[in-house]
Amino acid sequence: MTGWSKSHVIAFLVALLALLPVGVLLELASGADTFFDSYNLKVLGNTLALMVLTALGATLIGVPLALLTAYVQLPFRRVWLIVLAAPLAMPSYIGAFTLYAAFGPGGEISNLIGFTTPSVNGLAGATLIMTLYTYPFVLLTTRASLCSLDASQINAARTLGMSLFASFWHVVLPRVKNGIAAGSLLAALYALSDFGTPAIMRLDTFTRVIYVEYNAFGLSQAAMLSLQLLVIVGLVLFLESRFSGTQERPGRPLALWPNRWQVSAMFLATVPVILLAIILPLFIFGFWLIREGSGNFDISYAWNSTYASILAAFVAVILAVPVAHAALNGKTGRIMERITYLGFGVPGIVMGTALVYLGLKLPFIYQTLALLVLAYVMRFLPLAVGTIRSTTESLDSSLIKAARVLGASPREAFVRITLPLTMRGMIAGAALVFLEAMRELPATLMLGPTGFETLATYLWRVYEAGYFGRAAIPGLLLVLMSALGLALMLHGERRADFDITKGSSR
């Protein structure tokens, strides 16, 4: 390590920490009875089917909505984008819980309107839920690519007699195929790693079966299943890394001006998506709140969520700063940064399995808040690293050089110039880690101290007990936190949209 800066040393230690779960799982899986059997084949089939169908459904919904929000001059355009992107920020298990409770014999809709609606469960139900809550991945990645395209080629195609639909199909979509692929692979990754939706929909995917094995004290078999899931996740992550948005010289964006009936038709086409993904969960939670009141909700659950998430956000930022700076100072630092991103690709249920075994080996941390916070940090550290690195990259290096010429040491230049100027990225990264930790379900279920309930775990407990009405307050609080996360995620997009509009008006 000769010649490494302090940031490189810390980044190296953080990278080793990111690799820890894989090493733990390999050791734990060595005691598994079977590597792969006929039941594993069924679980693999269900998992791959959910992944593929989710990616397909997200693409079929996300691409048209990307075209709509990027090119069509709608009234209240910003509102349309926020509403259509909102499902991305809401935990999918909230949608699964409310749709499961609303539909089917004895469901809330059946009780209200008097006739039975179809049940939402199994592969079909899980695919519907996952599609509703992952299509914004495709919407946002495709829209970002669309907004960078010059409309001159489309106008030329129209001038040569090509219809609007044909020009989109032959001119626009081939130029944004990377953005579409990136978004669909993110949707597939989400479907692979999600635990709550398959569990509520009673679909045996890897995440649900791992949790069943954990509850049955089959940690070795859970570890073996976790490694099999990680292989699929690794393949999807590799494919996702091969795609990026379309890189073209920005030009004047395309603008389409619909008439009144076309606007009405577009609105009606989006209503089912908005109704199922946003309005129905809010309605069900509101209905339960009116019918059953607070349901003996203990405010300490909200405090537990907040306290653990604040700790995770603070620790993540402390570790992310040296990792981000090491990544900007050479190839070795970039490699270590990429290793830390492994944690974000590890599903929460897999992280929980690894750290439960680690806790059993180190009893002084087993079922402690420290172990839970460690899981949060390992999973969501890349969110903090990414925001801090992007902020640091935009700094004017001449300021630091000037400070060094005036006699400041590297440490003093960092403390007095770099650190204050990157504070915005640090706060944004901490906020993202905080919001994701608030919503994390499987790792919290497996690693939370005895009696330590959070909003997410309390919501799960009332689902398991069948006391659905008691989910109103924790569900609404989680939706509120998700809304804050959405505002943060769209902040950068709104600024970029403003700049494009401003630039095109000159």
| Top-tier CATH class of the domain at 1-27 and 299-452 | Mainly Alpha
Q: Helical amount among residues, as a percent range?
A: over 70%
Average pLDDT level: 84
Q: Considering the protein shown, what is the CATH homologous superfamily of the domain at 1-27 and 299-452?
A: MetI-like
The CATH topology annotation of the domain at 1-27 and 299-452 reads as MetI-like fold
Supply the number of helical segments.
24
**Secondary structure: number of strands:** 0
Architecture blueprint of SSEs:
Layout: H1 6-29, H2 38-71, H3 77-89, H4 92-102, H5 108-113, H6 122-147, H7 152-159, H8 164-172, H9 177-193, H10 196-200, H11 206-215, H12 219-241, H13 260-292, H14 300-327, H15 331-340, H16 342-345, H17 348-361, H18 369-393, H19 397-405, H20 410-421, H21 423-439, H22 442-447, H23 455-465, H24 472-504
Structure description:
The protein is mainly alpha-helical. The protein has a domain at 1-27 and 299-452: MetI-like fold, CATH 1.10.3720. Helices cover 77% and strands 0% of the residues. The protein contains 24 helices and no strands. It has helices at 6-29, 38-71, 77-89, 92-102, 108-113, 122-147, 152-159, 164-172, 177-193, 196-200, 206-215, 219-241, 260-292, 300-327, 331-340, 342-345, 348-361, 369-393, 397-405, 410-421, 423-439, 442-447, 455-465, 472-504. Helix 1 (6-29) crosses helix 17 and helix 14 crosses helix 18 (369-393). The longest helix is centred in the N-terminal third of the chain and has 34 residues, at 38-71. The chain is globular. The protein starts with 5 loop residues before the first helix and ends with a helix. 46% of the residues are buried. Residues 492-506 have low confidence and may be disordered. Pfam families: BPD_transp_1 (PF00528). Residues 44-240, 302-489 form the ABC transmembrane type-1 domain. It is found in: Cell inner membrane; Cell membrane. InterPro entries: MetI-like, MetI-like_sf. This is Iron(III) transport system permease protein.
